[in-house]
Amino acid sequence: MHRSRRGPAHSRSQSPGVASCDRRARPRVGCTRNGRRHTVRRTAYADDRRRARSLPHRDRAQHRGTHVAKRKDNSEIDGRKLRWQEHKLARRAELSDGALAAIRARGSNTGMDEIAAEIGVSKTVLYRYFDDKADLTSAATMRFMETRLAPALAAALGQEDLDEFDLAEAAISVYVRTVADEPEIYPFIMGMTSGGTGVRAALENSERIVAELLAGVLSERLRRLGFLTEGSLTWAYGVVGAVQLATHRWMMDRSTPVEELIEHLLMLAWGGITAIAHAQGDRRVFMSERHELPVPKA
């Protein structure tokens, strides 16, 4: 009669009141093996190892690989998510460029169907990357700022060989002419400001970019002269606001030549710049002086 090598489980040595530990069974805390009490952690990894030992040798490597794959799932998901986000940003930029081209070609009242047709995609594709027309307008606004207005202003303000008057004229001229040269883009953007907070946020972000760019140049010029610079950001926002609103009003009817608009704005801006220079950038000095209009005597 054949006898089992291991013998019956109840014949092994065990401590009273403590369950025996069978290596083939799921381990339990506080069991005994070979007459010695020990503790076994209940982990998924330990279970995987026990299952692997029960497999034929040729299948063990493949089984071990499944546990490694499980641990990689999160990183693989994160990688896919990152790649999708990068693709989405690139595709949004591409479609925004296409939307700007469509508006230039078809006018400021162009709808989503016409934009899609001009780009050569279905409207479903547009809605895959944009929530609605307001979202597309917001993206197109920022794209216009990034590709047209900001680079042009940076080039104008970066001309170190210009004196302060010529620099002010160059900056105002670039802003006004860039907007004036886009008779369809500007009304398209401004016409959507009531369509949602996204478009307004994009416009505010554009204003911030221009104002901070101007403030940096103004602050550097004042610092070179030894003047105070604490008001630079406020002055920059004041100039940007004045130029933007005056240009906006002018775009509605274009009742005067663009050169006149630029020169009137330059008069306003230069008056502020000379006042800042006279007080050396110090508001206390400015407020302590008596100011009168320099009216020419007859």
Strand content: under 5%
For the termini, the CA-CA separation is 138 Å
Shape: globular
SS-based class: mainly alpha
In CATH, the homologous superfamily of the domain at 133-283 goes by the name Tetracycline Repressor, domain 2
Instruction: Catalogue the unreliable spans.
Output: 7-23
Q: What multimeric state do the chains show?
A: single chain
Supply the CATH class of the domain at 133-283.
Mainly Alpha
Main pleated sheet: 2 strands, antiparallel
Question: Numbering strands along the chain, what is their spatial order in the largest sheet?
Answer: 1-2
Q: Strand-and-helix sequence, N→C?
A: EEHHHHHHHHHHH
Which fold does the CATH topology of the domain at 133-283 refer to? Answer: Tetracycline Repressor, domain 2
Calculate Rg over CA atoms: 36 Å
Q: pLDDT average, as an integer?
A: 82
Count every beta strand, where a strand is a DSSP E run of 2 or more residues: 2
